[in-house]
Amino acid sequence: MKKVLVTGFEPFGGEPVNPALEAVKLLNGKQIASYEIISRSLPVARGRCIASIVEQIAEFDPELVLAVGQAGGHMEITVERVAINVDDFRIKDNDGNQPVDEPIVADGPVAYWSTLPIKAMVDKLRAGNVPARVSNTAGTFVCNHLFYGLMHALACEGNKRRGGFIHIPYLPEQAARITGQPSMALETIVRGLELALAAALTTTQDTKITGGTIC
Amino acid sequence: MKKVLVTGFEPFGGEPVNPALEAVKLLNGKQIASYEIISRSLPVARGRCIASIVEQIAEFDPELVLAVGQAGGHMEITVERVAINVDDFRIKDNDGNQPVDEPIVADGPVAYWSTLPIKAMVDKLRAGNVPARVSNTAGTFVCNHLFYGLMHALACEGNKRRGGFIHIPYLPEQAARITGQPSMALETIVRGLELALAAALTTTQDTKITGGTIC
Amino acid sequence: MKKVLVTGFEPFGGEPVNPALEAVKLLNGKQIASYEIISRSLPVARGRCIASIVEQIAEFDPELVLAVGQAGGHMEITVERVAINVDDFRIKDNDGNQPVDEPIVADGPVAYWSTLPIKAMVDKLRAGNVPARVSNTAGTFVCNHLFYGLMHALACEGNKRRGGFIHIPYLPEQAARITGQPSMALETIVRGLELALAAALTTTQDTKITGGTIC
Amino acid sequence: MKKVLVTGFEPFGGEPVNPALEAVKLLNGKQIASYEIISRSLPVARGRCIASIVEQIAEFDPELVLAVGQAGGHMEITVERVAINVDDFRIKDNDGNQPVDEPIVADGPVAYWSTLPIKAMVDKLRAGNVPARVSNTAGTFVCNHLFYGLMHALACEGNKRRGGFIHIPYLPEQAARITGQPSMALETIVRGLELALAAALTTTQDTKITGGTIC
Question: Looking at the DSSP assignment, which residues form a beta bridge with residue B39?
Fold first, then answer.
């Protein structure tokens, strides 16, 4: 069976859990649109997270790769449009790195687009009662780092597989502790990821519906 | 068995559902801390909602009354501290009323405190992984109207039963449609209401933990 | 000439300035609607701030008293509707007090309304290009403490003078330091306070325009 | 004297003013760091705004070009890091265009970096008491369209001049009308732009201070 690789990060920033890891674990072994989902964890570490996803791609030879990360403060599932070639870490990663304005790939292009149908994915989530939107920035921390590294690796292969990134909100258990933050139930997140994968796997030409922002 | 009355409002403001009604329906007939939960719906209508809850109190003779309402834009379950004696409706209620700066009870006091242990309730929700906080304003629409009318009715009886109000976020299905809004899964809301009721029913002296705001 | 007393708080919470104090200082000695403005500072201290404003009222015998406080996080000038009889301090005041759920005035009423025409004031500010709204909670810290104490003192005199409270945003110099916060230029704040005082001094019957919130 | 071109957009989205245009008008003819500031307006129109700025560059031969746009909802001056090659208009521009997911420059790179020292600029604004931050998305409307078109034109010339984009908040007069929005006084905005230009004109190697976001 054809495969899809879905990755989630380990906890970071002092949090005991990462909703991305919790969610992708529950997808492991599932079948969506006749693809087998393989989910794996990644370290929140500059460089190492890219090396790890590249190894996993080599191991599983997936048709599509979806990386998932925690976005504290977000209230919806956000499907990322673009990864930019810069590390500007507001906090340290789990290896203690805190680069400021350094390229992820020396001499790499300024940015890569997601090669997933982001509008169709958002549309499918909303139709399935899961709050979602397109995001035009994945930040400048490890999530963007991985997203850029992934898209660079896929581009270097000739884009024979598609890839992209999704940010998800805190879990209720995190928001109950941190307070003053939006959250989303694990069940809603998992359902959202399944819908997003279903849309990505069955859509070849993305839908023309606006997901833009004024500023 | 001793009883608790829990009310939820009908949909309003153009929404096809009201999470408060959906949540309280699921509590009907449950038993919490050896109390039977009776849940009923209320019209989003000035005057009529108070008349209705007063009738239900007469019918069921509950020891405690908890009214629940939808708070679009809230990201946590909010336990209300105080009801104020004013109607100032930004939109029309379901009967077409839109009073501005009119008292709810002529010659009534400016405000009533909730007689529920709001800090213990918030504490219990957070400990149970449900995002929650104290709120110091229930607005000036039908939710505050009902809350004030309820506390006035209970005060007129000599406060032999306790009462209060809880606001809950949109459901994911609403936030998926409205977009740009926080939400909470129905399961999380229901669990939150159960925890809040358990705390209210088993706490006589409220906990001294801050739930204050600077401004 | 008839007098108006306008008070501003000293800095608190680690801030080197308080925009309320900076703004009211600039109003001292001005004349608005044929009233002389007298502005004074108050300590951010439970009990002492009320004692101080009561002394100033005795000294100046003003027709109207407006207390002004900093509201970090607010983006508009907010005219407060109601003061509630509770101290629930999330941080310590400048005397080190941090009461939780204690009454401001033992056996005082639950709340007092502002006796200023809050709608006419907001309307005048907006017409004068100053962002403003009604607020239905003044928090539970020293601002609400003073507001309640002031309205209680005025009520004990038989409400022969009117009084109320206005919250104002951070100054740009504070927001430049704290980051991620809205602010308002001192000139805009001062103009707003002048417009608010002009509206309060010339309006006897408040305007019927909505300033309500749903929740 | 060496020249700097500063552009501001005409009003759009139903607003009668555009703070960017108001602010840049006040800079016209000023001298900053021994450069003459020339400010010009641009139409809020896909294609035409780029054609216009390219003509102005040809006419004035500036050393540096700074484009300025209104960012409704922003509370700080935001110095943009990156322009992306996509038009995804949530509303129509002033010519009635509403492209969805179309490239700005066919076969252009995915994105261009600002060639201004964005960290030094933010640092200078904050030190000068003007709230500011780096932004990692300029949206997908006409502001990003112009920013991308400008950077593409400058790149095609071999980057012999530097260029970038700054977003500014609503004016108080706009926020007073729209309500519920942060704003910034015109004087603060103008001072901020002067500081930003001074930093840009005197900094060759950008400062290494974080301006990153987690997500």
Answer: B6
CATH number at residue C36: 3.40.630.20
Strand order through the sheet with A3-9: A31-32, A35-42, A3-9, A64-70, A162-168, A77-80, A132-135
Question: Least CA distance to A169: which residue of chain B?
Answer: B182
Alpha-carbon span A116 to A162, nearest angstrom:
6
Please spell the DSSP secondary structure of C159-206, one letter per residue: S-SEEEEEEEPBPHHHHHHH-S--B--HHHHHHHHHHHHHHHHH-SS-
Tell me the nearest-neighbour CA distance from B197 into chain A, angstroms.
18
Express each pLDDT in A170-210 by its tens digit.
999 999 999 999 999 999 999 999 999 999 999 989 999 99
**Active site annotation includes B167:** yes
In angstroms, the CA C131 to CA B35 distance is 49
Report d(CA C131, CA C181) in Å as an integer.
16
Please name which of C176, C200, C214 lies closest in space to residue C33, comparing C-alpha atoms. Answer: C200
Is A208 part of any domain? no
Q: Is residue C106 part of a domain?
A: yes
- Residues D208, A101: C-beta atoms closer than 8 Å: yes
Q: Taking the CA of residue D197 as centre, how many other CA atoms within 13 Å lie in the half-sphere pointing to its CB? A: 30
| Residue C210 resides in a domain | no
Q: Total domain count for chain D?
A: 1
Range of the domain at A79: 3-202
> Distances in Å between the alpha carbon of C146 and those of A86, C45, D107?
50, 9, 64
- pLDDT tens string C86-141: 999 999 999 999 999 999 999 999 999 999 999 999 999 999 999 999 999 999 99
B211 lies in a domain?
no
